[in-house]
Amino acid sequence: MTHYWREAKSDRLISSAREIEDPTERLAFVDIALQPPHASAIRVWAAHDEAVQAIQIEADEERRALTADAFFAAGSATVGMYLLVG
Question: Can you tell me the distance from the alpha carbon of 42 to that of 55, in angstroms, rounded to the nearest whole number?
């Protein structure tokens, strides 16, 4: 089940986000797509299972890298406006 979550709810969405050329649009996509409602359940499970925790940590690191890349590509002024507007 964790491998399905990783593939369907993280890896595929990260691949889709990387296809978005505009970094501001990519950030908006990341904000919506990578925050599924079941993410907290995976985190609770990861707190009690080291194998699940390893998968969750890897997915988080990839998401952080994607977000950081989009943030720096967009430039701080654009991203600042995006954060203010929501």
Answer: 10
Distances (CA, A) of 30 to 6, 25, 49, 52, 86: 15, 9, 26, 22, 13
As a whole number of Å, the end-to-end CA separation of the chain is 33
How far apart, in whole angstroms, are the C-alpha atoms of residue 48 and residue 8?
22
**70 to 2, 7, 40, 41: CA distances (angstroms):** 27, 21, 24, 27
Distance CA 46, CA 22 (A): 33
CA 34 to centroid of chain Cα atoms: 4
- Cα–Cα distance for residue pair 49/77, rounded to 1 Å: 41
The amino acid at 28: A
Span 11-41, pLDDT tens digits: 888 899 889 988 888 888 877 776 766 778 8
